[in-house]
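Intended use. Records like the one below are meant for learning the mapping from a protein sequence to its folded structure. Do not use them to infer anything beyond what is encoded.
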Amino acid sequence: MNHSSQTILQNRAAAGRRLVEPLLQYAHKPDVIILALPRGGVPVAYEVATVLGVRLDLLLVRKLGVPSHPEYAMGAIASGGIEIRNEQALRAHPIDKAAFEAVVARETRELLRRQQVYRGTRAPVQLKDQVVILIDDGLATGASMLAAVQAVRLQEPTRIVVAVPVAPVETAEALRREVDEVICPIMPDWFMSIGHWYMDFSQTSDKEVIDLLQRAWRQEES
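Structure written out for the chain above:
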């Protein structure tokens, strides 16, 4: 796919609007829940949940970055004690057990901090017999999303859908083998990075995550 103006996403809210049409079959269904991967997935998912009139919550995932190349995922952890190792990355960047465990410990602390900051005392979502739509602002290696999928699968949903605005072809194809449906409007052959496909890819703040979640939860209650 060539990098034409049509494939550049204005920002995360616009990226969310790109996902609405392919997800219309799930609109206004009580057994559908959207789980956003914070932080960047939250503004994307908020747009989708609002337009489709379905519930929104979070699934916390932390990438385990190789110490010498923090952007490069050697695995991921997710809520519920899920830990995934990217064997390919670990072969390319061998690190000892203690160093790996130190990264896991650090990211677990951050995952628990976010859980507390974003959700407070709100009860965990029950996913059994639900249709779960996992949303992020894009995928690179897919390690974080794979951890999210495994965490969700443990709760026995009826269906798992992954919806992201942009991902490399091979990452999207690998996920198709793991879930019931993958929705991804932009699948460039030549990927670069997620941010490359956005005009505004500025960091999503904790405050923005909390504001959007509170707004979504108020809409659900009204």
